[in-house]
Amino acid sequence: MIRVSNLRKHFGAVQALDDVSFTAADGRITGLLGHNGAGKSTTLRILSTVMRADSGSATVNGHDCTTQSLSVRQSLGVLPHSSGLYVQLTGRENIEYYGKLHGLRGSELRNACDAMIERLGISAVASRRAKGYSQGERLKVALARALIHRPKTVILDEPTNGLDVNAVRMLREMIRELKQSGCCVLFSSHVMQEVAALCDDIVIIARGRVVAQGTPEQILAALGTNDLEEAFVRAAAAAEDAA
Ligand SMILES: Nc1ncnc2c1ncn2[C@@H]1O[C@H](COP(=O)(O)OP(=O)(O)OP(=O)(O)O)[C@@H](O)[C@H]1O
């Protein structure tokens, strides 16, 4: 469960987050949708405990992202905006390293790593150094690394960027499996169709503010249209007009 309450964050003159509040429930997929620069990554970075908000609060499974960052990290799997793989390590070493950070050892670590490599279809690249990986290869190894400790809550920052259609399908399937197993999944995107294809709940963010949130049906009703893309455009335009 993720709870975000009244988050504010500025970078110099830029108010990246301006009173952002939403929740993302267990066993559901929540999409954080917004144009470039809307504040999605800033929100996810605060939740991932790599950045502090100026004010407001964020909790993951009841743990505060500022004061209980270790507990947050233990229950969280994060796919960051850039994969952040160690390029001198092989794919397997990258995955195992994160497993070790989460306390996995010996056969438990090996089995978890093997299962991830098989599930993601990356056995051919897992023994190669990450330097030179394609975008899709990087993403799959980064995803294996994020999920190796079977986290209860998963955050994915624009996970389908640069992926081919097969890789996108595989990713969607995995996200649905995480939901089926009771995980809370929060992912960001600037593509309405992608969010519509997967999400139970949608949070639309524009200029650092939440401008609409709810199930797809609730968002359509609130914005008076039958088309989710049109709803997104209307919500974002309203935020621009108000600015
Ligand atoms: N470290 C930083 N220093 C200065 N400005 C920043 C920093 N991080 C984010 N910003 C600014 O804050 C605003 C929100 O950025 P953020 O990365 O959260 O947007 P986003 O919705 O993830 O966009 P995108 O879809 O392009 O990745 C932008 O105006 C961005 O330029």
Question: Layout of helices and strands, plus pairs?
Answer:
Blueprint: E1 2-11, E2 14-24, E3 29-33, H1 40-47, E4 55-60, E5 63-64, H2 69-74, E6 76-79, H3 91-101, H4 106-119, H5 123-126, H6 135-147, E7 153-157, H7 165-180, E8 184-189, H8 192-198, E9 201-206, E10 209-214, H9 216-223, H10 228-242
Parallel strand pairs: 3-8, 3-9, 6-7, 7-8
Antiparallel strand pairs: 1-2, 1-4, 4-5, 9-10
Helix pairs in contact: 3-4, 3-6, 9-10
Bound molecules: adenosine-5'-triphosphate.
Q: What share of residues are in beta strands?
A: 25-35%
**CA-CA gap between termini:** 31 Å
CATH architecture label of the largest domain? 3-Layer(aba) Sandwich
DSSP E strands, number? 10
Treating each run of at least 4 consecutive H or I residues as one helix, how many helices?
10
Overall, the morphology is: globular
- Rg calculated over all Cα atoms: 18 Å
